[in-house]
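Design job #97: recover the sequence.
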């Protein structure tokens, strides 16, 4: 009997657990440890944040699904990994703390044969003074944050409906934040919702970003094929913002928020501030903060994790200049180089370096996007890791057959720009590969025929159908495994 423990039940962890259970015979155990009772389809939080979806439409309770699948579920937070066991435990184990019920706060240990770290990002609001829910800005990074965002935004809309002018600021809340796509999507949805309510002229909306040029999205921008023409994402993105009358501030690192004011530094070193009545700013991300200990309980956290808390995998972490970045630096097995039975998937793995060119202001402040790891690669790395572990357990395979480098896979990104069956709108972008490969595609860095962008109602339908399809898949409804990641 082998036991696989999955830490985290988000897009990557839940996918991994589902495929492990499907591939492994019943004598083997799959255990999921995650602090929330819910699975959340995070991309649809955007619609919760503009009041077009309810929280219950984007999440469901995990226990029922896991009971049906015969997966053991502990609603708990992992705190430390012990890959060599210790004096008390011969086998490798993970220590966690229950986050609910009578056992809340109680620590417990689960031994493992294989461990998957799928703990996603820690929303590092603390990295920017005054940032985040309960302080001076909002977030849509969890469905609860999105509900709070909508409650605040609704008041702004109501004031605008009474004829008042209001200022809205959306974007990145730290010089090194990523997830520009999500923030950009929220900006467009606010504008589209305001247009639907006929109050767009009462709102002064500003997009603030750490990107050097708009449309960078943390992947160094892209050339996309649109209506037969090759267009840089800069032009594509700027024209969408212009269509809604949204202003923008680029090359900005937000470093401090006070009530109604965001302070930022620009790449040229100048400092400025902007006032707002409502603001949604994405925080910097860090790893979840799990520690690691060796056989004698000595701290080996630095052996498993980078200093930002993301887990080291089979990437090439040698420090390099931007000009030397290569797709070959990116991981493809997600296996820890130190312990072959540990893997990190989704956002939890440490990328080798950014994709966008790293930049610093003249004062030395880093102001450029960290690399994004969107839903599609998170799902794909979850599935391939599950298949690899299942092959090891069931067939004793020593080598890793399934590989999934972000330098080889494509990703589809649908940026919704308004909700509605007949008047919805979305910008659909596909990039292939995600990490540009200048060796194989010297002209554009990507396969230009698979790197396309379109704006229209069809994109909205696609985004809406993905919402229902992915929730169908996550709930394990009939033929769930046929739906791609
Ligand atoms: C607002 C928003 C919109 C987005 N829209 C899109 C989109 O349209 N398309 C797209 O492709 N991507 C989108 N993304 C990105 C996408 O949501 C992420 O790529 C994806 O969720 C990452 O999956 P993950 O499994 O790595 O992390 P998550 O989905 O964040 O899951 C992490 C899991 O780990 C758990 N966890 C945390 N700490 C611990 C711990 N110590 N122990 C155990 N468990 C722990 C969490 O509770 C959670 O269950 C969006 C992101 C945001 C914030």
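Job complete. Output follows.
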């Amino acid at each position: 009997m082998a036991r696989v423990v999955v830490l985290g039940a988000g897009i990557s962890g839940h996918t991994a657990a589902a495929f492990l259970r499907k591939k492994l015979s019943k004598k083997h155990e799959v255990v999921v440890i995650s602090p929330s009772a819910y699975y959340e389809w995070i991309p649809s939080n955007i619609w919760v944040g503009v009041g077009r979806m309810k929280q219950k439409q984007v999440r469901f309770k995990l226990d029922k699904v896991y009971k049906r699948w015969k997966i053991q579920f502990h609603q708990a937070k992992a705190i430390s990994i012990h890959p060599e066991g210790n004096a008390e435990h011969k086998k490798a184990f993970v220590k966690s703390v229950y986050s609910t019920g009578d056992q809340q706060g109680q620590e417990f240990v689960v031994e493992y044969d294989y461990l998957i770290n799928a703990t996603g990002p820690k929303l590092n609001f603390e990295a920017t003074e005054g940032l985040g829910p309960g302080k001076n800005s909002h977030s849509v990074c969890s469905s609860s944050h999105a509900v709070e965002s909508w409650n605040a935004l609704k008041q702004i809309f109501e004031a605008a409906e009474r004829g008042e002018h209001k200022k809205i600021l959306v974007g990145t809340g730290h010089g090194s934040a990523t997830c520009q796509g999500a923030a950009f999507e929220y900006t467009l949805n606010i504008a589209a919702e305001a247009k639907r309510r006929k109050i767009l002229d009462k709102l002064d909306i500003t997009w603030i970003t750490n990107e050097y040029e708009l449309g960078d999205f943390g992947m160094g921008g892209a050339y996309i094929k649109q209506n037969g023409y090759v267009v840089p994402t800069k032009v594509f993105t700027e024209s969408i913002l212009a269509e809604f009358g949204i202003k923008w501030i680029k090359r900005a690192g937000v470093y401090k928020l006070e009530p109604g004011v965001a302070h930022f530094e620009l790449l040229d070193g100048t400092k400025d501030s902007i006032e707002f009545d409502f603001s949604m700013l994405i925080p910097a991300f860090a790893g979840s903060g799990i520690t690691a200990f060796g056989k004698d309980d000595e701290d080996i956290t630095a052996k498993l994790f980078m200093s930002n808390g993301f887990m080291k995998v089979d990437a090439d972490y040698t420090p390099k200049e931007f000009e030397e970045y290569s797709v070959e630096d990116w991981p493809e097995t997600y296996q820890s180089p130190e312990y072959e039975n540990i893997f990190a998937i989704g956002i939890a793995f440490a990328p080798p370096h950014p994709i966008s060119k790293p930049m610093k202001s003249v004062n030395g402040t880093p102001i450029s996007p960290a690399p994004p790891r969107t839903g599609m690669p998170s799902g794909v790395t979850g599935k391939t890791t599950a298949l690899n572990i299942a092959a090891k357990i069931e067939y004793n395979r020593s080598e890793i057959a399934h590989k999934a480098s972000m330098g080889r896979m494509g990703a589809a990104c649908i940026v919704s720009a308004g909700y509605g069956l007949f008047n919805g709108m979305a910008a659909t972008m596909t990039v292939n590969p995600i990490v540009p490969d200048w060796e194989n595609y010297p002209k554009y860095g990507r396969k230009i025929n698979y790197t396309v962008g379109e704006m229209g109602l069809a994109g909205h339908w696609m985004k809406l159908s993905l919402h229902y399809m992915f929730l169908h898949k996550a709930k394990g409804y009939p033929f769930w495994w046929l739906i791609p990641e």
